[in-house]
Amino acid sequence: MRSASQTAAAYQRQQVLTASPEMLTLMLYNGAIKFVNEGIKQIEAKDCIKSNEALIRAQDIMIEFMGTLNMDYEISRSLYSLYNYIYRGMIEGNMRNNVEKLQEVKGILVELRDTWNQAMKKAQQEKAAQQGQANKEK
After folding, report:
1. Residue 50 vs residue 125, higher pLDDT
2. 94: number of CA atoms within 13 Å, CB side?
3. CA 7 from chain center: how many Å?
4. At CA 25, angle to CA 38 and CA 66, rounded to 5?
5. Which pLDDT does position 110 carry in this prediction?
């Protein structure tokens, strides 16, 4: 019999394997925010080991974001600079147990995540409208 944590892990694995690239990006933003929150919580609890582990996971997500940008586009170069700023802020917050710095980078991540989510919704609406128009023309 599976434990609840094994079932949850299997469900999460399945979500990742079947998600669209857009949804994966949203999931990564959510993960980064979650790990920064956990890092802050553990700093406040004076648990340096757990805070470091959480913040390293958040930093890994930022490395993934920076590594997957297509630098042929200006927006990618701008995002790279922003992601690098967030990444360095995470390192500083981690090394110095600086909750204020971590709150700052979390705020940026929340804005990026919310903007991405809005863009996904708008793209879905436009796609649905185009499909509706195509169906009318048939």
Report:
1. 50
2. 21
3. 23
4. 85
5. 98
Place of tokens 């470091």: 52
- The pLDDT assigned to 9 comes to 66
Residue 12 pLDDT more than 80? no
Q: Rounded CA gap, 56 and 42, in Å?
A: 13
Percent of the chain with pLDDT over 70: 91
Residue that has been written with the tokens 């690098």 in this structure: 84
Residues 6+ away with beta carbon under 8 Å from 53: none
The gap between the terminal CA atoms of the chain, to the nearest Å, is 52
Question: Residue 86 in contact with residue 109, Cβ under 8 Å?
Answer: yes
Q: Contact at 8 Å (CB) between 33 and 103?
A: no
Residue at 39: amino acid letter? G
